[in-house]
Amino acid sequence: MLPLPPFERLAPSTLAEVVALLEQHGDDAAVIAGGTDLLPNMKQGLLAPRRLVSVARVASLRGVQVKREAGVIRVGAMTTLDAVTRDPSLSSAARALVEAARAVGGPHHRRMGTLGGNLCLDTRCRYYNQSHFWRSALGFCLKKDGSECHVVRGGRRCVAAASNDCAAAVIALGATLGLLGPAGPRELSARDFYTADGVRNVALRPGELVTHVDVPVVEGRASAYEKLRLRGAIDFPLLSVAARADVTGGVIRDLDVVVSALAARPRRVRGAALGVGAAAADLPIDSIAEAALAECAPLANVDGDVAWRREMVPVLVTRALGRLFAGG
Ligand SMILES: Cc1cc2nc3c(=O)[nH]c(=O)nc-3n(C[C@H](O)[C@H](O)[C@H](O)COP(=O)(O)OP(=O)(O)OC[C@H]3O[C@@H](n4cnc5c(N)ncnc54)[C@H](O)[C@@H]3O)c2cc1C
Ligand code: SF4
Is 260 close to ligand 2, i.e. is its CB under 6 Å away? Predict the structure, then answer.
């Protein structure tokens, strides 16, 4: 059993207090939501914040609200993944997000784990998510305490994998993240929230947190999520695909396919454009799957044979696209 390092837990009840505490304590503090990822990472010595600022008591961060005038469904960052899977408005307007949330960990992780925590999840790597003893035997790595990458020999940038199931889904759905920090609130498209830097792959500024996610409600929208993992539960993705199509009069006017768990940034497949203008009943699934295979190259950053993960790219894309219009 790995012990937790000592820390002070701060539990403010308003967003203003959360922001003030994060600003006051700077790098000494971290946000904690459900704690299902942060605490195991602290046990492994991956980080050791002296203060954890809990957002669990901030009521305004919880819940799912349909905002008709804005044409969005707003999901508070502190909403549990379990609540996301059970929300009827999300299951009709944002099936990919519901399926992604349902694919996270096991029931306990989904009851404790939150959407905000999932979207801000640290990247993962087989050479990083290990105990201090294990990492020290290897001489550490670029992401923490070391100077080389064991995935890309001679590489100068960490390519640890975005391993959060919901990231690909919110990107494919064209969601917008609400952020709040010392400089006030701002909005950022989910497409711009992730960077290619595996050390820190989210575009949060110092002292900033995610307050909510706005998922657009679009007439004629269909979406789906597919995940590759060894076991049917608990496991992080070895590969994941979210697909979303907007259809008018039987014709696809917009299509997005996002592949994740490749490297630090989920990848929007350019070849998805091949489906725009096609009849929904005649979607060129094989061509889009081939384009995804050409564009996506999994790295040896997480478990699972790389060649197998690569071969599964077109398989998952085919499954996700094939389910978009299943059942009419
Ligand atoms: C055995 C096991 C299996 C798992 N399987 C999966 C899986 O299959 N798929 C998957 O995606 N995840 C998995 N997880 C990880 C985790 O359970 C989920 O990602 C969960 O959604 C994280 O949410 P949380 O609220 O617990 O986040 P926390 O652990 O509280 O926080 C995670 C990170 O996000 C930051 N953070 C939290 N909330 C905010 C916010 N509002 N604004 C800014 N930063 C914030 C924290 O500072 C921390 O860096 C697994 C974890 C374990 C232990
Ligand atoms: S990708 Fe390289 S630098 Fe990043 S965590 Fe893995 S081994 Fe370390």
Answer: no
Contact 288, 275 (CB under 8 A): yes
Q: What's the rounded mean pLDDT across residues 24-47? A: 97
Residue 65 has pLDDT above 70, yes or no: yes
Domains of the chain by residue range: 1-53, 60-120+161-322
State the closest ligand 1 atom to the C-alpha of 165, by its place in the atom list counted from 1. Answer: 11
Once rounded to an integer, what is the mean pLDDT over residues 107-118?
98
Q: How far is the CA of 117 from the centre of ligand 1 (A)?
A: 4
What pLDDT score was predicted for residue 326?
Answer: 83
Q: Which atom of ligand 2 is nearest to the CA of 141?
A: 8
271-314 pLDDT, tens digit each: 999 999 999 999 999 999 999 999 999 999 999 999 999 999 99
Q: How far is the CA of 129 from the centre of ligand 2 (A)?
A: 10
Q: Is the CB of residue 40 below 6 angstroms from any atom belonging to ligand 1?
A: yes
Separation CA 42–CA 38 (nearest Å)? 6
Kindly give the distance from the C-alpha atom of residue 124 to the centroid of ligand 2, in angstroms, as a whole number. Answer: 8
Per-residue buried b or exposed e for 165-180, using 16+ beta carbons within 10 Å of the residue's own CB: bbbbbbbbbbbbbbbb
Number of Cβ within a 10 Å radius of residue 87: 20
pLDDT of residue 327: 64
DSSP bridge pairs for 210: 179
The answer to whether residues 39 and 177 touch, using CB atoms and an 8 Å cutoff, is no
Crossing angle of helices 306-324 and 285-295, rounded to 10°: 150
Spelled out in words, what is the top-level CATH class assigned to the domain 1-53?
A: alpha beta
Taking only the tens place, the pLDDT of each residue in 149-176 is: 999 999 999 999 999 999 999 999 999 9
Q: Which fold has domain 60-120+161-322?
A: 3.30.465
